Amino acid sequence: xxxxxxxxxxxxxxxxxxxxxxxxxxxxxxxARHSGGQFVLRIEDTDQTRSTDESTxxxxxxxxxxxxxxxxxxxxxxxxxxxxxxxxxKLIAEGKAYYCTCTAEELEAKRKAALAAGKKPKYDGTCRxxxxxxxxxxxxxxxxxQTGITIVEDxxxxxxxxxxxxxxxxxxxxxxxxxxxxxxVVIDDALMNITHVIxxxxxxxxxxxxxLLYQALGFAVPKFAHVPMILGSDKARLSKRHGATSxxxxxxxxxxPEALVNYLVRLGWAHGDQxxxxxxxxxxxxxLDAVGKSPAVxxxxxxxxxxxxxxxxxxxxxxxxxxKPLWPEGAKNADPEFTQKVIADMQPRAKTLLEMTxxxxxxxxxSINYANEAGQKFLLPEVLxxxxxxxxKLPALPDFSKAxxxxxxxxxxxxxxxxxxxxxxxxxxxxxxxxxxxxxxxVMVTLGKDRVIKRINDAVRFIETRAKA
RNA sequence: GGUCCCAUCGUCUAGCGGUUAGGACGCUGGCCUCUCACGCCGGAAACCGGGGUUCAAACCCCCGUGGGACUACCA
Length: 469
Known about the structure:
The chain is mostly helical. 48% of the residues lie in helices and 11% in strands. Strands 1-2-3 form a three-stranded parallel sheet, with helices on one face. The longest helix has 20 residues, at 449-468. 34% of the residues are buried. It binds one RNA strand through helix 4, strand 7, helix 5, strand 12 and helix 10.
């Protein structure tokens, strides 16, 4: 029987969850779900100076917003240092690691000198055979193999061969007694029975050292899969310079989590020509074979398109819930039923929830402010009488539904032999203050008869006032 | 500098020796239409270069070139 698949996502809590991390998490999560395995979350907080609880919370929030639930964790690496230290002692006892008293300053100087001389800046082995004892500020180094090769069998990139002499004696325990990343990650992945390490390909160069560590410790080496980076529009690694990179910033901008997930999964992974995937489809279809080797540029336009797609398909009640924090003050306390109608009107024409709230501002105001050009261009004396007549006839209209209004306007136009076109824009401006809006009939139904009549009368007054001036 | 990775439309990608090189975003022409959006129909747009291997190369190999990552007592 084969071991149950276990993947993990291991962010360091030194900031929010960013787009790249989210995709790594997503791939791990999908791979685990697809194979009926488990997904473990581990917070790598051994850097005491940079890690914060705040970041941990932010990461957890973002994961849960995306729907990436874990089966285990979060584990905290810093709480496992006893384990790490025990392994350090073991390696020292076996002669596979040694104490080193070279100071950071000395090392830095040597590194610079080597670089200046055009040589490789690796540790020169000063303390390698000194058989030093532990002392204040001493670090522990892994005694690496200096000959032979190490092959990383990568599920995405294929086999990658490294000469062991390229690998120097890396520090596994710092002067402050905490383990370094390359060591802790090996111990934890091994002890947590992680079977597949799926992570960013910025880690490929660390992998041979880690493999050597697994072997020195007597652990089974897991499978590795290195996912290519996500780049910004200038092809450099995605960073704040390129705009929003925090997952939660997308929530605040009015994106739906399924849109982000769908977008992210298509960065590097494909299933034929399919673009739209439900979460269940992703779980069924996801595989590492279909993950590409080359880096991908983050394209906000496509994300927007997907978001619009998911907004169109979402239930109104759900959108209403998601949009609660996004409304401006004036609309926040509106009648929920009214708000839902507004959302229904805007739903097919917005790319983000935030955009919906902005576009829908006119529904909630007491009286309309005509947009600069709109009032001047469409609220003209020529249409004055039409607007007056409509305002006059509306109270008697029995069926104030979309169909009823449509029919009313049609008849109205036929009676006086004018095209709907003639009256539509003025009416739109009267009702919304803009030249662009949802359909007149939709707006009227949502607004309700009373508000519609009031707004038309306001427009009538506006035209009369301007005519006098 | 060294090590490693990568290379199909502007972007995300399909392609896994024989295709009119397909789809999607974006751009664009048209239709629909009360504006906008949606939707529908059409268009422009790509195999980085050079050598091999082969009857045949976007696909395999080599060399260039270009990008990226790593090179910490960060993760």
